[in-house]
Automatic annotation (TrEMBL):
Record-given protein name: Phosphohistidine phosphatase SixA
Record SUPFAM superfamilies: Phosphoglycerate mutase-like
PROSITE patterns, per the entry: PG_MUTASE
Pfam family, one: His_Phos_1
Top-level taxon: Bacteria
Amino acid sequence: MNIWIMRHGEASFNAPNDAARNLTANGAENVKSQGKWLGEHLISQKIQLDKIIVSPYLRAQQTLEHLMLGMQAVNFPQYFANITETWEEITPDGNPYTVENYLEFLSDEGAKNILIISHLPLVFDLTQLLTAHKGNVQFPTSTIVEINWVGKIGEVTQLKHA
């Protein structure tokens, strides 16, 4: 299974609570650029995403919107609505073992290519878990890491910072 883990774009701190933080203009542009890169990468490898899992927090939802805009700029097929799932378990305090269990379920169901859009510390912790602590990836905002995950052993195969 190929798993792309993305940290949301740069967000403002001017919000009534953490879940309501908006992307900044710079964050939105960086995410669009990452979307263009990801779209080109997936097209060149003839990869179709099976599932997109996104945090319910506003900045993650906006990250998905801007990522799709960037992907559409390179004519990536538009089928996101049918495969996108908003999941409470991938907020900043999410449990990486719960996410791992869900990824195992999706794999058993035949999923081969998954995109996750979430937050620190979960994106770091999940990357560590899926790579048996060999994928020591730093996650500035908008970072995307690709992990080839076979069973419980994964390897970082791509890393793209904004």
